[in-house]
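Office hours follow-up: a student asked to see two folded examples consecutively, so here they are.
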Amino acid sequence: MKKIIFLFISLIGFSLHIYSQEAAVLVEDNFSDNRYKWWTGKTQNGSGDILRGEYIIKYAGQKSWASTIHTGLNPRYDFVIESRISRISGTASNGYGLVFGKGQRGYYNFIITPAGRFYVRRVERGKKGQYLIRWKKTSAISQTSITNKLRVQKTGNEVLFYINERYVGKIPYQSFFGDQVGFMMYQRQQIAVDYLVVYGNGTQTVPQKEEKIIAAVQPKLEIRQIAINDKEDIGNMSSAYGNGNSIIEPGESVEVTAFVQNFGLATAKNVVAKIELGTDDRNISFPDEYKTFKLGDIPSGDYKKLSFFFFTSRRYASKDLPFKVKLTAGSYKTEQALGLKMNERTKNIVDVNISKLNLKETAEMKEITEIVVKADVDENIPITNFNGENTLAVIIGIENYKYAPLVDNAKRDAQVFYKYAVNVFGIPEDNIYFLTNREATLGEFNKIFSKDGWLARRSEQGKTNIIVYYAGHGAPDTKTKSAYMIPYDIDPNYAKTGFSLNRLYSSLAGLQAKSVTVFIDACFSGISRSNKMLIAGARGVIIKAESSAFSAKNMVVLAAASNDEYSVSYPEKYHGLFTYFLLKELKEKAYDLPTLPVRTFFEDIKKQVVKRAGYLDKQQTPTLQGNDKDRPVILQ
């Protein structure tokens, strides 16, 4: 089930004291089922379906269409309506968005378009619609993602409007026509909604459970990030010692840092933490056993950290380290096991973040920036003076999938490659389309690589250099033996519903760019980086070579593995094995890239990958395809 974190109170000026005891979460829908009775079905002009955590609505007509539910919202009091909507198909000039205050006599709507415009309108039956905010251009609407978060918020006598957490306008409050809230689209659109929250005071028509009302205004403290330092002499205090390999091993003294985050709506006041060790084994020593950690206040979405030391002798035989943290904030109490294990790799703790691109799954939560495991390729990235203004880059890294296992470190691979694209290749950030995890849907792939897509609209024949980087799952179609990239929302058991390599190469070849360079850290044998089978019967499938990569005179494809192998992770460096050595080569040869032939560049990567894979007891042989292997890596 998706976790929904709604309101960052301190940012939006929404104070809890304005609510009576009737204030509550009136609707909290992540579309895991149809408990709120949304319209589903199919007509001549539209369809609605709740599928795998999304409400998917399609309208095929020429006017407008809406789907709404009763919420019991009393608009005389302050409220918040918030939803995240993804546009699957439709033209850029047609709008979609929220409907609110709907009743028999009319409704209000908050509509955005992919072209970056929005409006707010009041529509009363029998009268011409009234624009309360006329068509307005805003950069708040995402131009590099199909997903936008909309919020309608009443505070006092004003109704404010937000797009992706940015304030875009307000109107004076006017009486609503009813309590219905939902979604609207215009002229042949398809959208998918993955959550809707309505928070405020309810009317007597929608009773609320007492425990849900209380939970809505409570903090919720959890520890989701833990890091260690097992390197000798922390801060010159000789408090810990070990070999620095980020693995808790017998005979080491280890510093543990736990990050206490508030995932609740209210501020956690005067937070106190106490750590308990659930064993009397004399081979583990815990000096902080009776220490109380006073963390102070933790606002909604924020975090505080605590650190403690422990020591294990070489005779400690258990795999588990049964540390537990008890947290209190006034009457609120909770406890949580830390889940530390002996002889297993744990995140390391460092002082600075490597990148501003650590995208969050939940945008409202303040990001923990202290936890970063740095490899040598993540630091001191060269900054060249190469002119990349004529270069476009698409960078995609999918680590967490909706229907497939993790791809270890794929998100990090993409984040660090982004830094190399900017620093080494000299590509302006506006020329880069960057996607990770849930953003990288099949719709996004189509948007980028279609005939009228993001690349096609920006590329000039014979002038533009194009770079594509992809880290994620690949899978074969076992019948046709064709290879497919697997977007976030695609099940690899149905590989043909993904994005085929042949289509990718054909699309890129059709642009007739000056050069095209494709880096693929994925394999298409149906096996994941962690050697897990993605689809039944995939092992042993030999993928047919994709001819399109060879037809374009200006294209080269550097891939992580041969078609019957799988691309592996490099745990020590927290990257994919291929990506690590790709980045290493870019770093070491940064200033030579305008004269370094692709063939030479690739052979050095291949040699290192094959050698290191052997040390990891794996077999991985990168491949180079294309007809432009002797051109330089960078063309300006």
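And the second, which I mentioned at the end of office hours:
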Amino acid sequence: MTGTKRYKILLVGSPNVGKSTIFYTLTGRYTNVSNYPGTTVTFTEGSAKIGEHHNLLVIDTPGIYNLQTITEEEEVAKKLIIEGSPDVVLHIIDAKNIERMLPFTLQLIEAKIPTILVLNMIDELKKSNMDIQISHLEHDLGIPVVETIGIKNIGIKNLRARIISVAEKRYKFSPIHIKYPEYIEQNIIKISQLLHNKYTISKRAIALLAMSGDASIIKLIRNENFFKEISEILKNIPPLKARLDIENTRFNYSTKLIKEHLLVKTKREEKLTRFIDNITLNPFTGLLFAFLILYIGLYKFVGQFGASFLVDVLETFYEKQITIHINNFFHNIFNTNIFFDLFAGDYGIFTLALRYALAIVLPIVAIFFSFFALLEDSGYLVRLSIMLDKFLKKIGLSGRSVIPLVLGLGCGTMATIVTRTLETIRERYMVTFLLALTIPCSAQLGVILALLGTSFTALSIWLITLICIFAISGAILNKALKGEQPVFFMEVPPLRIPSLKNITLKTYERLRWYFVEVLPIFIFASVLIWVGRITYIFDFLSYILSYPAKWAGLPTKTGEIFLYGFFRRDFGAAGLYDMRDLFTVRQLIVTSVILTLFVPCIAQFLIMVKERGHKAAFYIFLTVVPAAFIIGILLNLILTPFIE
């Protein structure tokens, strides 16, 4: 039987299970990133074709642990599952953590959603000397189960065949029945009998979610004729107790399946993996390990190799091989009038904007994103989150906030978008503020590491100042902002040797996103500078900024750097790199601190408006600007007796 229908396939699962890899393997490329209506959460869509007649719309949903959601991203994933009417849902799990992830599979089965269980990274399970009896698992769950190794394209052919079988309704699902505590079962029957509308999931699943206090499900059933009677039933059920009893029952059911049928253990787990886990998660050795990783990755790789070596090579090439020809070309067209300065000269689009974007910013950002992808793919980034959770809780954050904060070292704009994965609005606001004030983007970081890296004292002062400001700002926000403290929960993936294919793919996608976003703004900034200079507005603003620069003991020309920094942080960093010979060591330290703390760039500011609202964005703006200069002035006073 062949068909022409375009089947909708959803990829669901918790973070770090290889969903994006499976998505890329099925579709061959990323095609469209969309916002879910009414939210800022994005999901990725791609097209795939199986055989001659089977067209697929494949959707990579945000990470989700179960249908009882916490974050906005999880809620969007749930809506795509429940309201999106998928033909097939691929529940992708890390095979090594099957016991913890199987309860969500059970929830999908109970909801009567056409599900295929995808045991990804099966090779890592087998390296731990364990195996899964697939036929037993399929029989007990009553759904298709497929083993895959996404990064090696293993098992994908079988997965495609199973997708078509389920989409065309040729696979006969065998329902399972999980026995919950008596009071849960009795109320499932009562609530189910009062549900008369049509739903895309089973009434049993709706009743279970309603008893757990799920707000979106209760909202969904409000137009039921007997909603008043349902509400009376729910009033007598403590939602937290019900949720814990339901989740414990599912977990126990999963554990029973694993013990009785599914896993065959032949040897002990490898001692090396356990040893590395102990090192990376121990508070003392984990901190030393993190320092070593960041020292090698950020200082040596991003700072010295990226910002010093690559930037020097590319900038020298650009200046000697490209800038001269550009100046000559536009000089022949415009001579030396004002239009020459728009395209060439000191501030032209081709000689300033493109040189900054291609020769200074691009190599640093590329190096950082490859380093970040390596941390992700190795499984270490989650361990870093867990290790820092205790420290971050002291200032009202959780370990989950490590991801946007570390990503902010690449691009503050992208990191601000990622704050939507945080659990509470309070935590999102705090991380957005800290990203704007204390976290340098990769170009800033690379340039500063290149400028201060020759002096351990100078680099240490800059770093200690930022850490202190981060801690003080976080403590103040923690006291000032009302709201619940976040609860931290994150699945720990196994440590693995990073895949070159994965690192290349992730780096390419982030770099493409960044470059599409940054190049137009660099050009726009260059045009604004040109307009500002011919109208003297730019000179006036630089003049105003020269006063706090002078108060901080800096050359008056430093005002231009800070003005550049508003157009783009990395634009200002590139400007500082250009003017480095004008500064003493003390002035370089103070300028680096002010530039790091100074107002976020236009792109990040606009994203702040979009994510946190106009009021919050302007409040952050009006707080960060004076704070940067006040701290710079105080730092200069402290350093003057000691450093020239």
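Two things to take away from it. The chain has 28 helices and nine strands. Residues 6-167 form a domain with the Rossmann fold fold (CATH 3.40.50.300).
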